[in-house]
UniProtKB/TrEMBL annotation:
It comes from Lysobacter auxotrophicus. This is M48 family metallopeptidase. Its cofactor is Zn(2+). PROSITE patterns: PROKAR_LIPOPROTEIN (PS51257). Keywords: Hydrolase, Metal-binding, Metalloprotease, Protease, Signal, Zinc. Residues 60-246 form the Peptidase M48 domain.
Length: 268
């Protein structure tokens, strides 16, 4: 019975998942939900955010963000060049996000650390990088797979040692999976979004070196953060070093984009 449960769980995961390659060449497991379902989830989450949070009515801010988004999304592969919807939220936290289905949200607090259009482009391109790299699909697939296997493990232990042992195993296993399986993958995604986003920004004619300045501003803004091994984001100084090294290799891309007429003038 135990072997049958385990086999059934593994078979379910194999059927639900597919293997693909990310923009940086990394193997990904996706497919727990369809792209249409992802787009619907993104649209629903975006609609809820707009209904719940206060939207900025500052025309200059909205035009500024729209200009940067348009310049970046024009460089996306054909399948991603839809009309991306943009919302600017009246929120002091320096944050931004992008969702499947072509949705982008930017908090007004981001302007305190993104001091010019190139730095704002670094933020927005990074968030778009998560979408085009299928990170939402990957996360949902991985979480669904982990939940399935934990449920099977709890059922096996419960049948052998009682429901108390099964419940405890599920809770401990969930904590372990979150710490050692799901979070490290998120750090991988953050680094990948940095790579993809910095490339997109350079192709759009935004200076890739400004990603370094952006993160320096982030650090200067202060605030405590968890240790690197328990964080969903790479260590800030490590991130700055990687962004700086990558910017040098992207300068020819940036210069070619400018020579080709990609000279965004969005403001700030």
């Amino acid at each position: 019975m135990k072997r049958a449960l385990l086999a059934l769980g593994i078979a379910t995961l194999v059927v639900a998942c597919a293997t693909t390659t990310s923009p940086t060449g990394r193997t990904q497991y996706v497919g727990a939900v369809s792209q249409d379902q992802l787009n619907q989830l993104g649209a629903q989450a975006f609609a809820e955010a707009k209904a719940k949070e206060k939207l900025s009515t500052d025309a200059r801010q909205n035009t500024y963000v729209r200009c940067v988004v348009d310049a970046i999304t024009r460089q996306l592969p054909a399948g991603w060049q839809t009309q991306w919807e943009v919302a600017v939220f009246q929120d002091d936290s320096p944050n931004a996000f992008a969702l499947p289905g072509g949705k982008i949200g930017v908090n007004t607090g981001i302007f305190t650390v993104a001091k010019n259009q190139d730095q704002l482009a670094a933020v927005i391109a990074h968030e778009i990088g998560h979408v085009v790299s299928r990170h939402h699909d990957e996360r949902i697939t991985k979480q669904q797979g982990t939940s399935t296997l934990l449920g099977i493990g709890s059922a096996i232990l419960g049948s052998a040692y009682g429901s108390g042992a099964g419940n405890a195993a599920g809770q401990i296993g969930g904590a372990a999976a979150q710490t050692f399986y799901l979070l490290p993958n998120s750090r991988t995604q953050e680094t990948e979004a940095d790579v993809v986003g910095q490339q997109l920004a350079a192709k759009a004619g935004f200076d890739p070196r400004q990603a370094v300045n952006l993160w320096q501003n982030m650090i200067a803004a202060g605030g405590s953060r968890p240790p690197q091994w328990l964080s969903t984001h790479p260590n800030p100084q490590s991130r700055i070093n990687e962004l700086g090294a990558r910017a040098g290799s992207l300068m020819p891309t940036f210069e070619q984009a400018r020579a080709a007429g990609h000279t965004p003038k969005c403001g700030s």
